[in-house]
Structures are given as C-alpha cells and as structure tokens.
Amino acid sequence: MLKAYFVCGSQDLVGQDFEKLLEQSIEAGVTAFQFRDKGASILTNQQRLELGQNLRAICKATNVPFIVDDDVKLANALKADGVHVGQKDELITKVIKEADPDMMIGLSCQTISQVQKANKIKEIDYIGAGPIFPTASKDDAVAPMGLPLMKEMAESSRVPIVAIGGITEDNVYKLKPNGAVGAAFISFVTRSQDVSASVKNVLTAFA
Ligand code: TZP
Ligand code: MG
Asked: Which of 3.40.190.10, 3.90.660.20, 3.40.50.10540, 3.20.20.70 would CATH assign to domain 4-205?
C-alpha cells in the first residue's frame, strides 16, 4: 500500500477540484492517500472536517487506505485507516494512545537515531523518510537527506520506509534500489500534466 502514496491538502491544489483530483489519482493507481491540510491552508476546522469526509468517502468506495496527517482527533472523527506524525508534530506516543486501536501509524524520520527510536515503538507501521530531494511543498522542510542516508535508514529500520520530497519522473527509479518500498508525493500529482502517466511511473519504479 505504500508504493504510490499520494499526499495532499487544500493548500497544494493549483486550481483543481480536490475530490476530482483524488478520484483521478486513484483511477491512475495510487495505493494510499494522506490528507495533509496544513501550512498555507485557509480552511476552518469545520471546512477541513467536511472536506475530509468527502475524501474519506472516495477512499472507502475505492478501497484505498485513507491516512490523516498530524491530527489524531480528525483521524478518529473521519474513521481514518491511519494517522501520520512528523517529528515536529504531537508526540508519537501520545498519538498512539489517542488513535483508534486499529489505526495504522506512520512516522516521519530524518535521521538514523530517529529510526532507532522508532524501532522500539511496536505500534509504528511505516516510516516516511524525507525530504530526499529538494521540495517546494513543505514550508518547514529540513535540508534534503539524499539517497545514501535514506538507504542507511532503510537498512536500520524495523518497518518499511517510504520516500518523500521532490520525487519526479527523473528520480523515482532511484528509490527502490536505495531501500524504499514506495514513494510519497504531492507536486508529482498536483502539478502533473498527466496524472495517469505520473502515477504509472511510480508503480513501474516499484514493480
Ligand atoms: N514531508 C517531507 S517533504 C514533503 C513532506 C510533506 C513535501 C513533499 O512534496 P513534494 O511536492 O512531493 O516534494
Ligand atoms: Mg506532520
């Protein structure tokens, strides 16, 4: 399910209808979706909840895992399949306690020592490593880690690693040989001229 992991919030859209873009990306073969509405988003909590309900329903109908970023209350309210937490977000142990018991847990890591800590938390199901390459989609992104560190993280990790940050058709093929089980991406889809071709590129890279 981590092969082609589409991440998106209202702040990432460039004029598209969110529901239509999600349907289009799922049609193209996206294997998981993360609702990450933050940063430059101007939605109220109520608007975020209503949008989330629509997106959740699309994922339910198409059997695509629906994961909420950095908001365990929203994840619970939307009956999400998972919740994803960053190092700067709420403490992972607190999120694990608050999340509905069956929920999948994802954690972002940037260093080997963060991976080693994550190895000791049995509830964590996967790690997001990134940004691997330079990204324009995250205001507070740390410096890109590059492929060698990602490979080392993958070798150190108990759970699968999904790569995120600056993934394009030119570099997506470098991820699997460096230990990632999949790619997570925003602009590769939101700024794509051909969503179907972009997603197929990812699926081919991880086939
Ligand atoms: N976490 C690390 S990089 C990133 C996030 C959420 C943004 C990824 O966006 P893009 O457009 O795929 O580089
Ligand atoms: Mg986060």
From this structure: 3.20.20.70
